[in-house]
Amino acid sequence: MSERDGVLVVDKTHGPTSHDVVAAVRRIFAMRRVGHCGTLDPVATGVLVVCLGAYTRLSDWFSKGDKEYETVFFFGARSDTGDRQGQILPSADQSMPSLEAVTSALAGFKGQIQQVPPAYSAVKVAGVRSYKLARRQQPVALDPRPVEIKSIEVLAFEAPRLSLRIRCSRGTYIRSLAVDLGEALGCGAYVEELRRLRVGELNLGQAHTLGQLRELAEQDCLDETLVPVQQALGSLPSFSLDLPESQVFTQGGTMRPAGGESAAGECAVYGVDGRLLGIGNLAGGSLRPLKVFVSQARLAESGSVR
Questions:
Q1: Which residues touch 299 (CB under 8 Å, ≥6 apart)?
Q2: Predicted confidence (pLDDT) per residue in 171-181, tens digit
Q3: Nearest C-alpha neighbor of 237 from the set 202, 204, 201
Q4: CA–CA dist 32, 30 (Å, integer)
Q5: In terms of residue numbers, what domain contains 183?
Q6: CATH number of the domain that 116 lies in?
Q7: Among 5, 20, 41, 180, the one annotated catalytic
Q8: Cβ distance 292 to 275 under 8 Å?
Q9: pTM of the shown model
Q10: Residue 41 a catalytic site member
């Protein structure tokens, strides 16, 4: 199988799991090292970031940026999964809230909140995925986690359906938001539709469906589908190194680069030719490598070392 390093944005359709998409991309690109960044539930559609080759080592960083969704909540019923794929039971109280009540309740979820992930999720409990425990009808007790709901816009409200656009931090579960909103209003709610519009700097404008990828594979045009790594890592601060600094960084050394005193935290590190050298951490003016992608040999091959 051929190997290439890259980042791909897939427009996932309703039905397949994220793992199904990865398996399809492996076949289309004829390569083994493929992974996804940030799971999309089978009921969800939209942006699924897929990394290829060595960039599978960057999945955590590709998924660090804010996420944006459009979703439809259905009021007056509850689902054991939090979405329409689960067992749905009508609520005892079928009365619908007013738009004023909905907007007032939504205001309580904006900003930094503590959110409990759904029982049917990939969160591990004593080393076991919680959805596996839930399917076995075993009790699942998950701890609340800090997340941030940065904005919630009401797009439409025609009871029992509420359409929203949501911008949130990594780790936010829209299913949990639907369930919590339904409980706050006393009528119950679950996710009927969910579409992810954006992950960090990657959006639907750069996305391809699996069908489109198959057609492009037949035309030998798959390289055109890959997005620049600089854009995929756009949620991270970037830092450029000169040639001597690049040599130290790729050898795993710590340095004090010019301008390092004005920044702190994780950053994407690039060389003089714009090539990604790796991920580093700046602290107290010192840059320490966390992940290195370009070896001294590859620097020499590219002409950066003479």
A1: 246, 247, 250, 271, 305
A2: 999 999 999 99
A3: 201
A4: 7
A5: 67-199
A6: 3.30.2350.10
A7: 41
A8: no
A9: 0.89
A10: yes
